[in-house]
Design a protein that fits this description.
277 residues; alpha/beta; 2 domains; five-stranded mixed sheet; three-stranded antiparallel sheet; 9 helices; 38% helix; 18% strand; globular
Length: 277
């Protein structure tokens, strides 16, 4: 058995679950990229992959995230190639794709399963869509991320594993192709597996709303956004968008080096109210 997850924190919690239930024994692989943001056109070609890496390099440059694309952290195409080889060489092998109800996991699911159509019957999905679990305090909750689920609850979750159907292998890759060809940069989960798309400035207005007339580190602005907004994304992307707002002429005062989140402070210009329109 091979387990696929889409977040580093999911690896840890699933590893603990495997220690508690030997029937879950198997290799855990993580898809590293966040396909909920960034360009997707020609994503399975060398040119499309290179364009996406180049975009990430731009987003991450001159920050604490610089170099993440160069040091081998993103090797997802190689992961899929290895997965295909394992499935071809062992007819008894099968894959469990774990996904929670969030745009990151669902985007990753579409990207991955569209490359595994030849292995229908060997690819299983565990999509925790609007399913209740019990947290550490004994309360019922609906997790948005796999890592929010206590390891003991994964033993219950395994019962949800089902093969991806032939119909899904026909319909879902077509939906992913449509998404990739739209040329948008931000994907939001509307419900189920439905992704809707927006331009790269989608988060800007909500992010700027957390800038006040008082000096704050960029890290604090981003932290407030992540704490208070329903639709969020990674801090690296938010830092890049904040820099884009600064360079684009937003009514802001800045002091320090506009690099990492803790390297500069930001506030609204005197007499200017940041609009969230």
């Amino acid at each position: 058995m091979i387990h696929i997850v889409f977040n580093e924190a999911d690896v840890d919690v699933l590893s603990k679950a495997i220690e508690m239930d030997e029937t879950l024994q198997g290799e855990i692989l993580q898809v590293k990229d966040d396909f909920a943001v960034g360009p997707l056109r020609d994503i399975y070609t060398a040119e499309g992959i290179a364009a996406r890496v180049s975009w990430w390099e731009t987003v991450l440059s001159d920050s604490e995230f610089s170099g993440l694309t160069q040091n081998g952290n993103i090797k997802d195409p190689a992961l899929v190639e290895s997965l295909q080889q394992k499935l071809n060489s062992d007819p008894e092998e099968f894959v469990w794709i774990w996904a929670a109800q969030n745009k990151h996991d669902v985007s990753g699911y579409y990207w991955l399963m569209s490359q595994l159509k030849d292995f229908q019957g060997h690819i299983f999905i565990l999509y925790l869509n609007n399913l209740p679990f019990i947290n550490e305090k004994g309360h019922i909750f609906y997790p948005e991320w796999l890592s929010q689920i206590p390891p003991r609850e994964f033993i219950k979750a395994k019962k949800l594993a089902r093969p991806i159907t032939l119909s899904e292998f026909e319909v879902d890759p077509d939906e992913w192709t449509r998404i990739c060809n739209e040329g948008k940069m931000v994907r939001i989960l509307e419900g189920g597996k439905k992704l809707v798309q927006f331009d790269e400035d989608y988060y800007d207005a909500a992010l700027l709303k957390h800038i006040t007339p008082d000096w704050q580190k960029a890290a604090r602005v981003i932290h407030h956004f992540l704490q208070k907004n329903k639709n969020t994304t990674g801090d690296a992307y938010l830092l890049w968008r904040l820099k884009q707002c600064i360079s684009g002429g937003a009514e802001l005062d800045v002091q320090g080096n506009i690099k990492g989140m803790k390297d500069f402070e930001i506030k609204a210009k005197a007499g200017v109210e940041i609009s969230n329109a």
